């Protein structure tokens, strides 16, 4: 006799299976499997969404355009960057067809999940934000937002690779040779400039994402955690429960004036930059060259904290978030790199006006 | 009919616990294995509390919701799980690698229908690691698969009225782009 095990599966257990790392696309499709699936799936409260591309050559249905959300790569990403174009040495020209990136709106994709508590949205990699020379360079950022930017950490390296122990030409860097190291840590002016350009580019990306999420948040009143990453695993924007509350309150208050920018304005910032010419992480088998870590806070936030506790700025450094997006193995490396680099002295402290 | 599970390592000549399945098969397992099944552990502890004098493992624990087929697989899985854990007691990463390797091999010999059966058994026995693993396995098996594949996987027929399914398909047209091959 064939027993129907599926019928014996309690709803809670089926829900547990379905909420196990399935992405929104599979879940939506599963709505069609049976009525039982259709009734359970909207109860799932933790969702991972890869924003699905919309192929234009499909025949258009009436009303579809309303549902389609356009990420105009040029408008959202490239335009703010053009301001910087003259100081950028490594920007590729925007793809001529970048205007054709069309994506379904996150609200459309998520409309069935009314009780959503935790959302991880993965944006497609537009491949045009900033290209680097060669594939070995590294740029990772993580930003936290409330109503506006709360903090941003950026880790960058000109050369990030699996260490080739036999041919490593940098092994002469010795911890004991303090003086030599001090000399090498000098950051050339154009190098500094390029790191600042990278930093601005990251901040622009982050603020574009924040603008995007402001269109999502009002539709999901139960949302408590929101993460936006990209397919290229470069940047990660996070918002927790309190930050979402702060954003909702600010959006409800009438004083919010619609900015003409298609991104959230960045407040006046204070940033610290650490730099190391060579970092070897032999235990993990990785080596990095020209590593920079930038820690960014809004000036207002820093001042507020300093008033309360003069040592907090120092303590802040120890709390640097190293939770970048990436492959599991890489994440360990990034964490270690951040821990190593903040042991050094801060090389630059800068302020950046609001933009 | 009796199903004696042989002891792999004679070092642990510990207590054996006897489990009886819904189809009346009897399994004799090491205490360490049985204790991973929280339901069994609970029963065992209760028994011991009620009956302080019985230090011997003569208790027969009935499992009215578990059949012999999934139980045999769960016992194998549990033994291997404990073995891998013991072999890599001081290296969590190595343990995870070994476990992953074993689980990958394990899944090659399991049919979709069996997975549902195993989930039910693991759930009843409250064997958390196995439950998590099987649920993950199901999720990854149906990840980005077609509706028909998922139905087949769970042994289901559509229970939508004619026209209802088409309407849903139309509404969620975007989710049918780029489906993996079955």
From TrEMBL, chain A:
InterPro entries: AUF1-like (IPR044809), F-box-like_dom_sf (IPR036047), F-box_dom (IPR001810). Transmembrane segments: none annotated. It comes from the Eukaryota. Residues 6-41 form the F-box domain. This is F-box domain-containing protein. It comes from Castanea mollissima.
Automatic annotation (TrEMBL), chain B:
SUPFAM superfamilies: POZ domain (SSF54695), Skp1 dimerisation domain-like (SSF81382). InterPro entries: SKP1, SKP1-like, SKP1-like_dim_sf, SKP1/BTB/POZ_sf, Skp1_comp_dimer, Skp1_comp_POZ. Pathway: Protein modification; protein ubiquitination. The keyword Cytoplasm does not apply. Residues 15-82 form the SKP1 component POZ domain. GO terms for biological process: jasmonic acid mediated signaling pathway; protein ubiquitination; ubiquitin-dependent protein catabolic process. Residues 131-174 form the SKP1 component dimerisation domain. Keywords: Ubl conjugation pathway. Pfam families: Skp1, Skp1_POZ. Belongs to the SKP1 family. Involved in ubiquitination and subsequent proteasomal degradation of target proteins. Together with CUL1, RBX1 and a F-box protein, it forms a SCF E3 ubiquitin ligase complex. The functional specificity of this complex depends on the type of F-box protein. In the SCF complex, it serves as an adapter that links the F-box protein to CUL1. Part of a SCF (SKP1-cullin-F-box) protein ligase complex. This is SKP1-like protein. It comes from Castanea mollissima. The lineage of its organism: Eukaryota, Viridiplantae, Streptophyta, Embryophyta, Tracheophyta.
């Amino acid at each position: 006799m064939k027993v129907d095990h599926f019928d014996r599966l309690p709803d809670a257990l089926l829900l547990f299976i379905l909420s196990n790392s399935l992405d929104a696309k599979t879940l939506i499709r599963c709505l069609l499997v049976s009525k039982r699936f259709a009734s359970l799936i909207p109860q799932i409260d933790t969702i991972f969404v890869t924003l699905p591309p919309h192929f234009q050559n499909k025949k258009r249905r009436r009303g579809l355009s309303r549902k389609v959300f356009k990420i105009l790569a040029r408008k959202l990403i490239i335009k703010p960057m053009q301001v910087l174009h003259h100081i950028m040495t490594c920007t590729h020209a925007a793809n001529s067809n970048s205007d054709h990136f069309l994506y379904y709106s996150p609200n459309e994709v998520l409309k069935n999940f009314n009780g959503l508590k935790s959302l991880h949205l993965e944006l497609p990699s537009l491949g045009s934000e900033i290209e680097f020379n060669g594939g070995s360079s590294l740029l990772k950022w993580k930003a936290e937002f409330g109503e506006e930017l709360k903090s941003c950490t950026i880790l960058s390296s000109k050369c990030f690779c699996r260490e080739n122990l036999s041919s490593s030409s940098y092994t002469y860097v010795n911890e004991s040779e303090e003086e030599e190291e001090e000399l090498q840590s000098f950051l050339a002016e154009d190098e500094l400039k390029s790191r600042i350009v990278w930093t601005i580019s990251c901040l622009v990306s982050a603020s574009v994402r924040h603008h995007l999420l402001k269109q999502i948040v009002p539709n999901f009143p139960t949302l408590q955690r929101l993460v936006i990453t990209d397919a290229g695993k470069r940047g990660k924007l996070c918002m927790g429960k309190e930050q979402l509350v702060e954003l909702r309150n600010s959006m409800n208050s009438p004083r919010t004036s619609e900015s003409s920018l298609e991104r959230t304005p960045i407040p006046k910032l204070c940033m610290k930059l650490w730099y190391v010419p060579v970092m070897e992480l032999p235990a993990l088998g990785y080596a990095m060259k020209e590593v920079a870590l930038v820690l960014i806070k809004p000036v207002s936030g820093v001042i507020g904290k300093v008033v309360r506790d003069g040592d907090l700025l120092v303590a802040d450094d120890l709390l640097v978030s190293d939770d970048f997006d990436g492959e599991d193995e890489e994440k360990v490396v990034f964490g270690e790199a951040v821990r190593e680099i903040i042991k050094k002295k801060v090389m630059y402290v800068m302020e950046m006006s609001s933009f | 009919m009796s199903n004696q599970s042989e002891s792999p390592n004679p070092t642990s000549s510990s207590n054996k616990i006897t489990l009886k399945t819904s189809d009346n098969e009897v399994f004799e397992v090491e205490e360490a294995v049985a204790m991973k099944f929280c339901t069994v552990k609970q029963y065992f502890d209760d028994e011991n509390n009620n009956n302080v004098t019985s230090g011997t493992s003569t208790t027969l624990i009935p499992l009215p919701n578990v059949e012999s087929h999934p139980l045999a697989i769960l016992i194998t899985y549990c033994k291997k799980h404990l073995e891998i854990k013991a072999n890599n007691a001081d290296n969590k990463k190595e343990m995870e690698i070994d476990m992953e390797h074993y689980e990958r091999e394990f899944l090659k010999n399991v049919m979709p229908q069996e997975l549902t059966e195993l989930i039910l058994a693991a759930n009843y026995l409250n064997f958390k690691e196995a439950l998590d693993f099987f649920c993950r396995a199901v999720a990854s098996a149906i990840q980005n698969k077609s509706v028909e594949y998922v139905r087949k996987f769970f042994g289901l027929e559509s229970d939508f009225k004619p026209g209802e399914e088409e309407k849903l398909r139309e509404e969620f047209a975007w989710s049918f782009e780029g489906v993996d091959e079955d």
